Hints:
By secondary structure, this protein is α/β, with parallel strands linked by helices. 39% of the residues lie in helices and 23% in strands. The protein has a domain at 1-66: Alpha-Beta Plaits. The protein is built from twelve helices and eleven strands. Helix 4 (88-94) packs antiparallel against helix 5 (99-110) and helix 5 runs antiparallel to helix 6 (117-126).
Amino acid sequence: MNLVIQSPSAISDTHLxxxxxxxxxxxxxxxxxxxVRLIDADPLQRPDIDAYCGAHTLDYAYLDPDAKLSDFGxxxxxxxSTLITIECIDEIADFCGLKAEVAAITEASMRGEIKxxxxxxxxxxxxxxxxxxxxxxxxxxxxxxxxxxxxxxxxGVRAAGLKxxxxxxxxxxxxxxxxxxxxxxxxxxxxxxxxxxKLTGRVVGEIVNAxxxxxxxxxxxxxxxxxxxxxIAMGDGSNDLKMMAEAGLSVAFRAKPVVRExxxxxxxxxxxxxxxxxF
Length: 279
């Protein structure tokens, strides 16, 4: 395997020798200031590489030497804390003075401590009952920010011929705006019920949980005529794990430990455009 080391800042030459030794690679190659490739690296050395990279704010990934981005047909992304930096439901709750309470439930759910995502989402949405729907627009306009490298990543995957899917346990109010803004191909999310300009505290239709995320990835792959192994899935929380397991390559982005442990690779420090720089 090739071992690709990345950093958001310049990688010092002092890292090359210890990384090569830990990886059992005799061919370290500096690609550019922020990227190093180690040829014929031993994947069994992953625990040592993980410890070294974690201590030095480096990201790493083991890849087939022949892998190309154009080998894939779809990139499927979670929204909250992946494509964007916030958890939208936490920010909505801030407008009714309940951010801390809702954020605690969100965090526990994303760490996998609350096993029933449907119950977790239902509890959180119920706390929003009576809130003026204008709060959604304020969250989008005032608080929603794209994660570092998001637009560059999307430009790069489109240039390589991949389709894009935003699949979220969050809300269509945000996914549809991001679809239009970023030129995404497909989206799937939950619909908040709004009556007379107020949130009712309920979600309309099927809740997009871990099973629905995985099913959406499979269905989208079938729609565009590729196998799930030709999909890349990116996420940060436990409700992304089933979707990520279906994909041929899974990326944990600034993710919870349970997700980092299960993913093909993790970006803890670099931006989403680190995906382009792997190949």
